[in-house]
């Protein structure tokens, strides 16, 4: 393991002394070590780690906590190397500060990009405490050890606590070489640890964005054009202002805002709005004409994203090529907590409580909004006037990477010159999302004389579609060509859990089963023969064992799929139980992941269970559709998610590995839909060309 040499970095060592005296250390994502300067009792450090004289260790995590567990998993990385008493650990969201680099949570990167950085932060702090402890105990440092927040002289058993050492430790020289632990010596990493934020979520102390309350705060909501790109023509603002509790009603460009003394009053007044809209060019937009656009001829040339051999020549000369076409629809994020943002205004300063996946982007959006309103101010001046606070997020799934709700809240607060909380009704959330795009996939393949896939052609056509998930093919097929035609979208598009891996994995894995069926081969055995990634092959083999693949019969039908994404490898098997000739029901779903080193198995298990439910909802429930430029769905009643009653048994298996960690929050999504489609293919003998799927009758 590479030694850590602080001399390679611009290490600023300074004791951060407050009324309680504290040692504060941190390492920026760039690898640069920084130290907070704390001269005030109420300081906010720009560092990862603080140890107080009472022994409490406060860890500052720069990833947004939206249910996926980074507050705990990332704290475990620091605590593992620090040899701290876990019961003394406290966690807070890090402030928005350059020391942490770009702050944005997405792409299942939280553990991956902090894996070494946070362990180094703990190891450096531990070494400084060891040096201070040896000096305090008047013992050789090589005869002292750190354990459970104490430095102990091994021979005499005399010890001193971390809390007693913080002042002395801050004056210790910076260690030149610090080695990280070998995985065999881990005490925390790899063990199921209760989440640090769990107790407050259970007892109601946890504060999400929607829970923020400020003195004198008023409440706002918004009605945006039902047609994408539409603008306000006329609205009954004067009438709305006469309603009880209403403070103001005005247009901010994106829509009509109602401000009231309570959220209820604002929502009720919003319902009474009578707005005439300039609908614009997209008023004729329907799902059907978007599909026609994807299916029609175009002069645009697709981009080549993967090629080996000569797939087109092989397919053109094949006697009986297999062809299929799949379509994946728009999907909304459906976060449990709707979009909201609270802005406190005082003396020209803006404190913004933004439940966002990117505090950095939230601040940039706030600055941009204010720059339009206060053009005489420089960006630097505006940045100095804005503070971003990140509360807990009630789900993200990629939606809160977009900052439209933050921009709107800033505009409203600037106009009112007072603190305000903006809350979108669920209907606004569903109809003004940044959607998972509609994509179409045309595939052709041919087989050799033994029934093995010989040629493969995949063309992806979609609204702002992406190549990821299709730019590598996990199978040893000699002739491959993958192309993509990326079309501009009149519909807002954004990252959705697993992003393009979702739709590209569906096309690849379902078409693979079509080829296996055409060649008279077992989809499982053909995968195991042709998979080129050993880790992917291993999780598939494990999943097949756990699901008792070879015990399926006419009543019990199985479908499998695999996919590698975000540094992890996942295999999933979906079981269908045949009730009669036409009806099926979901049985057990088996999910096996190789995510490298598993930090907290409990969190990983919860993440994968959530991924399965999320992906099942997208596969089985009505998607987003457009008519006359409008999203037809409104709320959970017509855009539902899977209920507890509908959720089948889910078995999650985490394979043992000592490799660097991969992602966890998203890799469980892509294999689910194709595994279900493959089970239906086995049941009905026909591919599932469109979502949502039907378990009863034909799909």
Written description of the protein model:
With 699 residues, the chain is an alpha+beta fold. It has three domains: 6-203, Aldehyde oxidase/xanthine dehydrogenase, molybdopterin binding domain (Aldehyde Oxidoreductase, domain 4, 2-Layer Sandwich); 209-280 and 339-423, Aldehyde oxidase/xanthine dehydrogenase, molybdopterin binding domain (Aldehyde Oxidoreductase, domain 4, 2-Layer Sandwich), CATH 3.30.365; 287-331 and 435-684, Aldehyde oxidase/xanthine dehydrogenase, molybdopterin binding domain (Aldehyde Oxidoreductase, domain 4, 2-Layer Sandwich). Helices cover 28% and strands 23% of the residues. The chain has 17 helices and 28 strands. Strands 11-12-9-19-16-17-18 form a seven-stranded mixed beta sheet, sandwiched between helices. Strands 2-1-3-4-5 form a five-stranded mixed beta sheet. A five-stranded mixed beta sheet has the order 14-22-21-20-15, sandwiched between helices. A hairpin with a 5-residue loop joins strand 20 (439-447) and strand 21 (453-463). Helix 1 runs parallel beside helix 2, helix 9 packs across helix 11 (404-416) and helix 13 (500-518) packs parallel to helix 17 (672-684). The chain starts with 21 loop residues before the first strand and ends in a 15-residue tail after the last helix. 49% of the residues are buried. Mean pLDDT is 92; it is low at 1-21 and 26-46.
